[in-house]
């Protein structure tokens, strides 16, 4: 737009986002609209756009201002929105307010790392400090963020502790329950194959958790045997019922184990790397060690 003509926005919008931390304006649901008996009532919003909000100066200072280790532009609205809600405040849209926001045709500043990498750095800082274990869904939705540098967040973590802020689960339950948490029904399932053999679990007398072996693939096409079917979850776990693949240590040739699934355990996180499965913490790939007495004694290692 080449003029300063005012363009009004809908009065029935609030801020929203998806797991990749992409901001969007969303319409109020019919239920939310029905509860609004007065069109001038404030609208509680899970998140704000960065260019159009006001905040009391003393409250802004108390909350820790902006995260000054973020770069240039992008993602700061997520960080301050999560921080406000989780640390005792609220965000409201006032329908009767009027804000003029001028969009330039191009950025008046440069992004030394490129605007995509800058946005990833900033949103990754947000996810690491404020989203708890739910940050894994951010990485699933934005895989390019894995391994990207995001700087030192210890000061922001300490700020969160000092302010006694609530968990991200509280935020999802009380502020933005409309954001669907991915579950295993949205995950991928199948076999883990090495040549003609498949990874399977089995019970061993005297051992509480299942053990892993390689065995000939069984079951029909597209319908593997239950003990050879694995689920790759949005939390980057490889699951079979209530147990997940983990490792005993992060050293080379560490044995792969089946342990009760725990989202907070980084040693249970894997990613697909070409035709291999890579353990995220150790950066080693899943492989087998063949014993001299044959297949029955094979062990899974990273």
TrEMBL record:
Which SUPFAM superfamilies does the record match to this protein?
A: Nucleotide-diphospho-sugar transferases, Ricin B-like lectins
Q: Which GO terms describe its cellular component?
A: Golgi apparatus
Give the molecular function GO annotations: carbohydrate binding; polypeptide N-acetylgalactosaminyltransferase activity
Q: Where is the Ricin B lectin domain positioned along the sequence?
A: 190-293
Recorded hits in Pfam families, A to Z, give:
Glyco_transf_7C, Ricin_B_lectin
Sorted alphabetically, which InterPro entries does this protein's record hold? Galactosyl_T_C (IPR027791), Nucleotide-diphossugar_trans (IPR029044), Ricin_B-like_lectins (IPR035992), Ricin_B_lectin (IPR000772)
Mind telling me what this protein is named? Polypeptide N-acetylgalactosaminyltransferase 14
Originating organism: Austrofundulus limnaeus
Q: Gene encoding this chain?
A: LOC106511088
């Amino acid at each position: 737009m080449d003029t300063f003509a005012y363009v009004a926005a809908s009065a029935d919008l609030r801020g929203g986002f998806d797991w990749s931390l992409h901001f969007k304006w969303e319409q109020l649901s019919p239920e939310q609209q029905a509860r609004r008996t007065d069109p001038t009532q404030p609208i509680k919003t899970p998140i704000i756009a960065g260019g159009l909000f006001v905040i009391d100066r003393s409250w802004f200072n108390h909350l820790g201002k902006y995260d000054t280790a973020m770069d240039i532009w992008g993602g700061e609205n997520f960080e301050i929105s999560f921080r406000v809600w989780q640390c005792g405040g609220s965000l409201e849209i006032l329908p009767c307010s009027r804000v003029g926001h001028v969009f330039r045709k191009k950025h008046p500043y440069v992004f030394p790392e490129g605007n995509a990498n800058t946005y990833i750095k900033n949103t990754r800082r947000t996810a690491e400090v404020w989203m708890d274990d739910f940050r894994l869904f951010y990485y699933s939705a934005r895989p390019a963020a894995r391994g990207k540098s995001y700087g030192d967040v210890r000061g922001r973590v300490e700020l969160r502790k000092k302010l006694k802020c609530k968990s991200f689960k509280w935020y999802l339950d009380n502020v933005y329950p409309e954001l669907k948490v991915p579950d295993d029904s949205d995950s991928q399932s199948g076999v883990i194959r090495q040549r003609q053999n498949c990874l399977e679990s089995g019970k061993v007398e005297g051992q509480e958790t299942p053990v892993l072996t390689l065995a000939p693939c069984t079951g029909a096409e597209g319908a593997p045997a239950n003990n050879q079917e694995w689920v790759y979850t949005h939390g980057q776990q490889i699951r079979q019922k209530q147990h997940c693949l983990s490792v005993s240590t992060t050293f080379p040739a560490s044995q792969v184990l089946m342990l009760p699934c725990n989202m907070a355990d980084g040693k249970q996180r894997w990613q697909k790397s070409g035709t291999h499965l890579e353990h995220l913490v150790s950066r080693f790939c899943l492989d087998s060690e063949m014993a001299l007495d044959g297949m029955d004694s094979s062990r899974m290692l990273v």
